[in-house]
Amino acid sequence: MLRWTRVVGLAIAVVLSTATLADASTLQPGTPSHPSNVRLTVTFGWSQLGEDVTSFQLWFPQGSVYNGGKYPKCSAQKLDAYGPSACPKASIVGSGTGTALADTTVTRPKITVVNGGANTVYFYTILNNPARVQEPIIGHLQRLHGNYAYKLSSTIPKNLQIVAGVPINLTSLTITTGRGDWIGLSGAPAGIKVQTGYANGATSAYSLWVQNI
Q1: pLDDT digits over 46-65, tens only?
Q2: Fewer CB within 10 Å: C terminus or N terminus of the chain?
Q3: Burial of 50 (0-12, 13-18, 19+ CB in 10 A)
Q4: What does the alpha-carbon distance between residue 210 and residue 213 come to, in Å, rounded to a whole number?
């Protein structure tokens, strides 16, 4: 199995960011006519900023392949009403965990990644402290040209930013995605550009670089 590790040039706000791509089919990256199926794991960690994470933007390099339009999808309305269990089984394409501080109490969000179609992916998030909250974070995918193939933009809903009157300070996050050819590579992967937004309006930007191990 081929594994790729990205090592980040750290911004002040970020204490650790890595990503691993595991090629599920061959020992070589794919080609435009035969992309390789992959599973992608991304791990972020933040220092104690005093400001809460509110948004993410990721730019994926040329050679990245997204096939969400080919897979069964779920809707935000169904997720809001019934959760991922009501979605088609093949629309569940990943999972994740994290740690956050609700004042001084540690809370651990649980995430289910759900396909939303050609331009949307949902990160259905459950928090149990300081109160139980469950809501999808909507990821909007935009096809690009030039150095990057796709841009993923997500804003954390207010219901997950402040729970029971307590601001939620996200300190780490790990998400693994991939199912069949839902995502793939048509060539050797390059850097992923990342930007994180915070409650005070500040942002941190950095890149995840690729090394074959």
Answers
A1: 765 556 889 999 999 898 99
A2: C
A3: exposed
A4: 9
Element (H, E) at 82: helix 76-82
Pairing of strands 203-212, 92-102: unpaired
Residue in 58, 31, 70 with CA at minimum distance from that of residue 140: 58
Computed from CA positions of residues 35, 55, 16, 145, in that sequence, does the dihedral angle turn out positive or negative? Answer: positive
DSSP 48: -
Rounded to an integer, what distance in angstroms lies between the CA atom of residue 67 and that of residue 7?
26
Q: Which residues sit opposite 160 in a β-bridge?
A: none
Q: 4: which strand partners?
A: 21, 212
2: phi > 0 → left, psi -120 to 50 → alpha, else beta; which? beta
Residues 6+ apart with CB under 8 A from 73: 88, 91, 115, 116, 117, 120
pTM: predicted TM-score of the whole model, two decimal places:
0.85
Residue pair 39/176 in contact (Cβ under 8 Å)? The answer is: yes
C-alpha span between 193 and 196 (Å, rounded): 10
Peptide bond between residue 29 and the one before it cis (omega within 30 degrees of 0)? no
Q: What is the Cα–Cα distance from 178 to 181, expressed in whole angstroms?
A: 7
